[in-house]
């Protein structure tokens, strides 16, 4: 049985022999050296778990040896017991200040040394266990981080590719999840004759669960659009999908719209979502009058068969649509003033014609408002221009 | 800052919430409501939102879940004291038509 490796360092052969005898009898593997320098040579071959070292030795004394052992990352975890002829409190403190883990006064009883060694090995065992647990946790965390990173990349892949363009439309987005992955999602699909189907949604909660549901929301929207029908049908279908497939507290606010460029019109359902802004002639940039699209309704997924309401709005050539999730407007200044819908509306009154410049400007302004705190919620901003 | 109190009336449990109700506090609040519903099994649960400065979607989810669990016990959930900011969120999400909402706590207790 080998309970561990003990290195005995003492210039007196008799002491090395006595300690060696007791340690071997107790089941330890014993190494011996007559001073610190020799001990370092021995340690070049075998690393001990515990060092029992005399203080006063020729060539390299115990204090210097201890400093070397405790100063090197490879050996600093070895349990170091300094055996000193001085039985004064001052020298004990001095030894512990050197980094020694314990002190034994000379002359000693072999039984006392053995009791200290047994106690030291209990500590060593605990330290090893902690180290093992830490490594396990670190490995787990690394794996989780890698998976989250992968999931985040996957989620970004679910968003429309940029620069976004469809015949007669140009669009861009800014997507800033609070925790790497988030519950915001938006998508734009072709629909009907030269039209677009678009959806922006914010799933309640954050992180992995919200991200999973956001993927479900996107899939549900796409299958609804494929079935044809109107935004009202889409909302009812998605509500059913979500109510059946998620838990009680999980739902999504969403804005669903179909834009028909032939009729210069947009049909939409606001399902508990912040109403987007329409900026007449906003695609040209400059000073404009943004309008809040009216309408409100239940969030998706609350309960099956809740009623939704469809609305209409003009959407003409040169118009701009600004869609966002609440993370963008629920930013709070130090004086607790929220940017809010009103604040964002003011910012939208004068935007650059270029969608990307406009999106960067809005996100930057919201960040300034929130300074110095980063966004606490997922933030998504979409700017859609109908080009002339 | 977020705060909450719970007390018992003759036929109702009253949970009073103050501060910002967002995802950071929903876990705590969920426990409070669940404990109240399971231990008291109230015929009427009143949640007073008078002191709430802000409620986000996870907070709304919590209230929806509260209604579901009270429903299961054949009880009722009454909300009261919605400040304008909170009222606006409720209007936007149509939850004004989903919950029984009262102006004051007295009204909510009487409305049983």
3D structure, described in words:
The complex is a heterodimer of chains A (388) and B (112). With 388 residues, chain A is of the alpha+beta class. Chain A folds into 2 domains: 5-132, Response regulator (Rossmann fold, 3-Layer(aba) Sandwich), CATH 3.40.50; 159-386, PPM-type phosphatase domain (Phosphatase 2c, domain 1). Chain A has helices at residues 13-25, 36-45, 62-71, 89-97, 110-158, 207-226, 231-245, 326-329, 340-347, 355-370; strands spanning 5-9, 29-33, 50-54, 79-84, 102-105, 164-166, 169-176, 184-191, 195-203, 252-260, 265-271, 277-279, 286-287, 291-292, 311-314, 320-324, 350-351, 379-386. Chain A has a 6-stranded antiparallel β-sheet with strand order 6-7-18-16-12-14. In chain A, strands 2-1-3-4-5 form a 5-stranded parallel β-sheet, with helices on both faces. Chain A has a 5-stranded antiparallel β-sheet with strand order 8-9-10-11-15, covered by helices on one side. The longest helix of chain A is centred in the middle third of the chain and has 49 residues, at 110-158. The N and C termini of chain B lie far apart (31 Å). Chain B has helices spanning 23-40, 57-72, 84-92, 105-110, and strands at residues 3-8, 12-21, 44-55, 76-80, 100-102. Chain B has one domain (3-110): Transcription Regulator spoIIAA. With 112 residues, chain B is α/β, with parallel strands linked by helices. Chain B has a 5-stranded mixed β-sheet. Chain A binds chain B through residues 202, 204-206, 248-251, 253, 270, 272-275, 296-299, 302, 326, 330, 336, 338, 376-377, and chain B through 22-23, 53-54, 56-58, 60-62, 64-65, 68, 91-95, 98.
